[in-house]
Amino acid sequence: MVNQEDKFKKVISHAKEYGYVFQSSEIYDGLSAVYDYGQNGVELKNNIRDYWWKAMVQMHENIVGLDAAIFMHPTTWKASGHVDAFSDPLIDNKDSKKRYKADVLIEDYVAKLEAKIEKEVKKATKRFGDAFNKEEFISTNPRVVGYKQKGEAILKRLGKSLENEDLADVKALIEELEITDPLTGSRNWTDVKQFNLMFGTKLGASAETAMDLYLRPETAQGIFVNFLNVQKSGRLKIPFGIAQTGKAFRNEIVARQFIFRMREFEQMEMQFFVKPGTQTEWYEKWKKTRLKWHLSLGLGAENYRFHDHEKLAHYADAATDIEFKFPFGFKELEGIHSRTDFDLSQHEKFSGKKLQYFDHEENKSYVPYVVETSIGLDRMFLAVLSNSLQEEELENGTSRTVLKLPAVLAPTKAAILPLVKKDGLPEIAHKIFEDLKWDFNVAYDEKDAIGRRYRRQDAAGTPFCITVDHDTLEDNTVTIRHRDTMEQKRVKIEALREIIKKEVDVKTWLLKM
Ligand code: ATP
User: Fold this and answer.
1) From ligand 1's centre to the CA of 248, what distance in Å?
2) Which residues are paired to 89 by β-bridges?
3) CB 267 near ligand 1, within 6 Å
4) Residue 64 near ligand 1, beta carbon < 6 Å
5) Ligand 1 centroid vs 33 CA: distance in angstroms?
6) What does each C-alpha distance from 320 to 250, 306, 309, 312 come to in angstroms?
7) Per-residue DSSP letters for 111-158?
8) 259 exposed, middle or buried (CB, 10 Å; 0-12, 13-18, 19+)?
9) 454 lines ligand 1 (CB under 6 A)
10) Measured from the CB, is residue 377 less than 6 Å from ligand 1?
11) Which of 332, 370, 374, 375 to mutate to test the pocket of ligand 1 (most atoms within 8 A of CB)?
12) Ligand 1 centroid vs 335 CA: distance in angstroms?
């Protein structure tokens, strides 16, 4: 059994070895928490974005897309509250000189309690066998109940202190729990301070006329400031949604988790505008819909959970995270927020322009309420990649590394492999490539023995290998090998398109929602 830390290291090195993710500017020793996507990474990322866009925009009569600029008028960020309140509570360790998010240190402490509960459950499952009742065990076993209550009490106190801006109490909590620097074990902490996460930059040539700008820390505000443009030009009726995907920038302090927490990352957000008073209903609906989208990819229902927020952001009246079981534990993958009329009202106030919707049925104007779904594309990439990477023991005693990506997301759908580099086999293989490339991203590979080529495609996550051999010359058939089952079938060349399509088609996968 590999432990989780080793598993995570494997994911990172595999991502590099197979052209998924590289450290940015690596030849200059890299830039911390900034990453580049390689030849396979860019395809996987595009496929995840497309899968989201199809499900969230094109499958709905009343949701449209937008592509707003990264630069926005600086007043945007005053109105949104980011200038005043987009900060993290930080704490430094005086011995190691390392900086941490104070709330994360505390949350990690609680995660350790959760891990202890999981361990107790595992032990008891073994001990009691079939007679084991997990629910009952969790609610009655004194040790488990103790861990649970302790964790809940800590999170409640943390939520309250953050809400009241009581940073002294956050530090007190760290001291009471005897939390140590994860790297050095030191307990020599500074006070907790707030630190704004927005990157500043300048627009304009001369020093006198240059304007201070921020790189957007979220894509949502581009949607809010365009709310009326889109609604009027699209003649949209409430309820309706506006979606966009794009880069966001945050000067993250704790940046040691590969592409989980980046300084430049991509978001996929949808703001759904609703009649005031109906937001709870929509919030519940989007919670369900988004979870279904995740489940459709087959990464395992046990790897997701909702985490409702104790502390609500300044703009929200309800908020939850969809958490995913990453190699380092359950962490936020997506946020679903009921943002009220906060953003539009603020932009009305700061711009002096009305941002209201005239409701013909009600015969009155109002500022709509908003329910947001917001997911990090890079985090989703990490969820898919880490979940798919598997080390498999084979019947013949050997093992293989296989990347069992959902076929709909796989960068390359099929690799076409001539058995040998002669006798006309490469020519036929190239012809198959030329034919299939119109419908799928396919690859051609003639290097090395066929077994090694299969292994390489398994590790890169390619769902199908198509092998052209000497029988092909006789009867126009090829073998098609399935990545997950390693099963090989002999089929007609003309049948390939349909076989591949059945497994990689977006429709097949989205219908599982
Ligand atoms: P966290 O608590 O992990 O910092 P957040 O609550 O600040 O995240 P939101 O502002 O709700 O995140 O952003 C929505 C989504 O954007 C998150 O669910 C996450 O998937 C993604 N995201 C946020 N910050 C980052 C980052 N630094 N790197 C990669 N993805 C991010």
Assistant:
1) 10
2) 194
3) yes
4) no
5) 14
6) 21, 6, 5, 9
7) HHHHHHHHHHHHHHHHHHGGG--HHHHHHH-HHHHHHHHHHHHHHHHH
8) buried
9) no
10) no
11) 332
12) 8
- Within 10 angstroms of residue 469's Cβ, the number of other Cβ atoms is 19
Instruction: Give whole-number Cα distances, 256 to 93, 232, 267, 328, 412, in Å.
Output: 16, 44, 19, 12, 30
Quote the CA–CA distance of 140 and 121 in Å, as a whole number: 12
Looking at residue 1, what is its pLDDT?
A: 46
Pocket perturbation via mutation, ligand 1, pick of 77, 247, 265 by most ligand atoms within 8 A of CB: 265
In this predicted structure, the answer to whether residue 395 has a pLDDT above a threshold of 90 is: no
**pTM, rounded to two decimals:** 0.87
Q: Residue 497 C-alpha to ligand 1 middle, in angstroms?
A: 39
User: pLDDT at position 82, please?
Assistant: 92
| Res. 211: pLDDT tops 90 | no
Residue type, 303: N
pLDDT digits (tens, 9 = 90+) for 115-128: 999 999 999 998 88
Ramachandran bin of 244, using left for φ above 0, alpha for ψ from -120 to 50, beta for the remaining angles: beta
Please report where in the chains the tokens 């704790």 appear, as a residue.
254
**What is the identity of the amino acid at 63?**
I
Beta bridge partners of 90: 101, 193
Q: Is 274 in the pocket of ligand 1 (CB under 6 A)?
A: no
- Band of residue 2 on the pLDDT scale cut at 50, 70, 90: low
Q: What is the overall mean pLDDT for the chain?
A: 94
Q: For the chain, which residues make up each domain, given as ranges? A: 91-193, 412-510
Partners of residue 364 on adjacent β-strands: 359
Element housing 161 (H / E): helix 142-163
Architecture field, domain 412-510: 3-Layer(aba) Sandwich (3.40)
Residue 99 — φ and ψ, nearest 5°?
A: -110, 140
Residue with tokens 């010359």: 473
DSSP string computed for 346-360: HHHHHH-----EEET
Closest residue by CA, ligand 1 atom 24: 261
Strand, helix or coil for residue 305: strand
